[in-house]
Specification:
alpha+beta; Deoxyribonuclease I, Chain A; seven-stranded mixed β-sheet; 6 helices; 20 strands; 20% helix; globular
Length: 345
């Protein structure tokens, strides 16, 4: 099964010669669009994803969804599974166990950590990790307080792990509040969550001797939005990045057939992001990345024709209430980090 997933997919992404000469540590973030199991959680509003509901979310469809998610992770990993996989819109630990142990992904023996948020629908964020490349030291959920009339949102997930270089890598996985109700009306809550992320980032950047921080997930905002540009103060990497500043990585220029990670009313939008601390852009260090080593993963099998607008769109699981059997309404984003140390943990 693994060979089936990997045949020809290696040609979809061509690493730079420099990356091929050194060990590659690939990180990806993906909103998998409603990865629900088929059982009802009495504490959550998951009614639409049950076998008897109007979406007819059957066990067969659930298994297909797991296989689809596994296929994308395998394809993006090329000949080697991504070291870290941040996922948004996963319902619970059950779906993560099924994904990592009972789907074709089981060959890579991923471990995972996840949140258990007060989100009304019960969706959470999770981090899959290759424990021979990222030795988990700790993980915790960061609860977001309610703001006004907005629904409670997802927790942040903070995980710390030891790299092969011997350094600690901090990861914050996030899924900021949606734009339901309007962009302007919902923006204050995203700014509020972003301020919580910024406070956590500042604490880590000043506490670590050699801080290395990655913040990734679905931000529901653009690089130019207030939450990213003003609150998180994350910008495109300059020629000489500051060690304790945050920078925005995913590079739409690396993908020719799409201009974002999500398409809304015919317009591509970049709302899924990978932010890094300036220390991770230092090419003289033993573990680093660059804007040229990041991108949006958009192979042909993740796209279909957009009949209402020009071009292509993500191949979704559902289009409205109609089952499509696709993957997600988002495309994954990724970044490659170069590891100059091949020692064992």
């Amino acid at each position: 099964m693994r060979k089936f997933f990997l045949i020809l997919y290696a040609s979809l992404l061509i690493p730079s010669p420099r990356a091929e000469a050194q060990a590659r540590f690939r990180v990806m973030a993906w909103n998998v669009e409603n990865l629900f199991d088929t059982r009802h959680d009495t504490l959550k509003n998951d009614h639409e994803f049950l076998p008897q509901a109007y979406r007819h979310w059957t066990y067969t469809r659930y298994r297909q969804k797991l296989d689809n998610v596994a296929r994308v992770i395998a394809a993006l990993g090329e000949w080697e599974a991504p070291a870290l996989v941040a996922l948004c819109e996963v319902e619970n630990d059950t779906v993560l166990i099924d994904l990592t142990r009972h789907s074709p992904l089981k060959e890579w023996r991923y471990r995972f950590v996840s949140t258990h948020s007060p989100d009304p629908r019960g969706i959470d964020v999770a981090l899959l990790y290759q424990r021979d490349r990222f030795k988990l030291l700790s993980s915790r959920s960061i609860r977001i307080a309610p703001l006004g009339r907005h629904h409670r949102t997802r927790d942040l997930l903070h995980a710390s792990g030891l790299l092969l270089t011997g350094d600690t890598l901090d990861i914050i996985v996030c899924h900021l509040p949606s734009r339901t109700g309007g962009v302007k009306e919902s923006a204050p809550y995203r700014d509020f969550v972003a301020s919580r992320i910024r406070a956590e980032a500042d604490s880590l950047l000043h506490a670590r001797y050699h801080p290395q921080l990655i913040i990734l997930g679905d931000f529901n905002d653009y690089p130019s939005s207030s939450s990213i540009r003003k609150v998180l103060q994350a910008v495109a990497p300059p020629t000489q990045p500051a060690a304790l500043s945050l920078y925005h990585l995913p590079n739409p220029r690396a993908t020719q057939n799409v201009r974002g990670s999500y398409k809304y009313r015919g317009r591509w939008e970049l709302i899924d992001h990978i932010l890094v601390s300036g220390t991770l852009l230092d090419t003289t260090s033993s573990f680093f990345t660059s804007d040229e080593l990041s991108g949006i993963f958009a192979p042909p099998f993740l796209l279909v024709a957009d009949p209402e607008h020009d071009g292509l769109q993500p191949f979704r699981t559902y289009k409205g209430m109609k089952y499509q059997g696709g993957y997600s309404d988002h495309l994954p984003v990724y970044a490659d980090f170069i590891d100059n140390n091949n020692s064992e943990l």
